[in-house]
Amino acid sequence: MKEIDGEGTLVLRVKTRPNDANKGGDIFGGWLMSQIDIAGAIAAAECAKGPVVTVAVKDLKFIQPLFIYDIASFYTKVTRVGSTSVTVEVEVFAQRYQEGERPRDRVKVSDATLIYVAVSKPGQKRTIPS
């Protein structure tokens, strides 16, 4: 299934849970960063036709908070492919859920740019097939 919100391909959807949150009810930034990395790695691995590892997070913005029970949708777009590396942009949208209410429109909560390197085994780069 391909779904578009802005630009990119939907690669991951996750429902946030109470154990993902701090005492204020916001989802931990580290949890969101981890999910962004997973989504980006899925896109990079498909492009590289094999395993990849994260080598850099060039840019990461937290635009709005995620809350408990939001559904986070992760959209990716490959923006550059080198001989061994892949650059991926990730946008995150939240569908808000409040008890007893209908789901509200999606809001953009984060975006990031990450770089992955294709590997054949841990620590060994490989060339990305054309």
Which range best describes the helical content: under 10%, 10-25%, 25-40%, 40-55%, 55-70% or over 70%? 10-25%
Structural class: alpha+beta
- The overall pLDDT average reads 90
The proportion of residues in beta strands is 35-45%
Structural Rg: 16 Å
Unreliable sequence segments:
1-5
For the biggest sheet, the summary is: 6 strands, antiparallel
Continuous helix count:
1
H/E order of the elements? EHEEEEE
Which quaternary structure do these chains form?
Answer: single chain
Q: Quick one: how many beta strands?
A: 6
Distance between the termini: 25 Å
Assign an overall shape.
Answer: elongated
Task: Please tell me about this protein's structure.
It is a single chain. With 130 residues, the protein is of the alpha+beta class. 15% of the residues lie in helices and 45% in strands. The chain is built from one helix and six strands. Strands 1, 2, 3, 4, 5 and 6 form a six-stranded antiparallel β-sheet that branches. The radius of gyration is 16 Å and the shape is elongated. It starts with 8 loop residues before the first strand and ends in a 5-residue tail after the last strand.
Core attributes:
1 helix; 6-stranded antiparallel β-sheet; alpha+beta
Blueprint of the fold:
Layout: E1 9-15, H1 29-48, E2 52-62, E3 71-81, E4 85-95, E5 106-121, E6 124-125
Antiparallel strand pairs: 1-3, 2-5, 3-4, 4-5, 5-6
Q: What's the gist of this structure?
A:
With 130 residues, the protein is of the alpha+beta class. It is 15% helix and 45% strand.
